[in-house]
Amino acid sequence: MHTDVFLVRHGESLSNVEGRLCGIPPGPGLTERGRLQAAAAARRLLGRGVRPTRIISSPLARAIQSAEPLAQATGLKVELHDALREVTFGGWEGRRTDELWAEEEFRQWCLDPESFSPPGGERLSQIAWRVGGLVRRLAAMGGPGAIVGYSHMHPLIGLVLEGRGHGFADQDLYTVPNAAIVHVRFEDGLLHFVSLDPLAAEAGGEIGVAL
């Protein structure tokens, strides 16, 4: 028996548009484009025959708002889990990336978020472990149907790397666009990567790629 888990990156947020690092709840919400992307992701999941038995979300506003279209369509309540939140940015919280780029420490982190971390923040493996641990616990409970969760770019990149058996230094192999869907499967006590679907980001004929 296996459990399918679909984790969706939130739609475009105000922090994406501003290029601002925001990892502390509640954080900024979605833009109008982000709401369209979230609705498109819900349609894509349901169109693929995904029938969730539970919907989980990061406690940040942009993730909760992204979960709303699927919750409305299915009648399920959105469960908040701190493990799904974005990376802890520490001393960089709330700052703009174009300003931070002048700092060597930030440039090193962008290139290698496993060897380097934000001041007072998390490494990529730490993020992956907390997300992966939650997915394992919920999936191990078993039951029919799938779990759909809403999270952020760094947690999902970490989960993809773990599910594919890559080292966390290989993060440049992947990007997770706004509203993209990561599909993993929990089977025989192991987490397996299935697919990364960026097409769920389609909204109004566009694909959201704000990172």
Structure, described:
The protein is an alpha/beta fold and 211 residues long. It has one domain: Rossmann fold. Helix content is 36%, strand content 20%. The chain has seven helices and eight strands. The chain has helices at 14-18, 32-47, 61-74, 97-100, 104-111, 124-140, 153-163; strands at residues 2-9, 52-57, 78-80, 146-151, 181-187, 190-197, 202-203, 206-207. It has a six-stranded mixed beta sheet with strand order 3-2-4-1-5-6, sandwiched between helices. The protein is globular. The termini are far apart. Mean pLDDT is 88; it is low at 204-211.
CATH architecture: 3-Layer(aba) Sandwich
Multimerization state: single chain
Distance between the termini: 35 Å
Helix-residue proportion: 25-40%
| Low-pLDDT segments, ≥5 res | 204-211
Question: How much strand?
Answer: 15-25%
| CATH third-level topology | Rossmann fold
Features:
single chain; about 210 residues; alpha/beta; Rossmann fold; six-stranded mixed sheet; two-stranded antiparallel ribbon; 7 helices; about 20% strand; disordered C terminus
Could you give a short description of this structure?
This protein has helices at residues 14-18, 32-47, 61-74, 97-100, 104-111, 124-140, 153-163, and strands at 2-9, 52-57, 78-80, 146-151, 181-187, 190-197, 202-203, 206-207. It has 211 residues and is α/β, with parallel strands linked by helices.
SSE layout and pairing:
Elements: E1 2-9, H1 14-18, H2 32-47, E2 52-57, H3 61-74, E3 78-80, H4 97-100, H5 104-111, H6 124-140, E4 146-151, H7 153-163, E5 181-187, E6 190-197, E7 202-203, E8 206-207
Parallel strand pairs: 1-4, 2-3, 2-4
Antiparallel strand pairs: 1-5, 5-6, 7-8
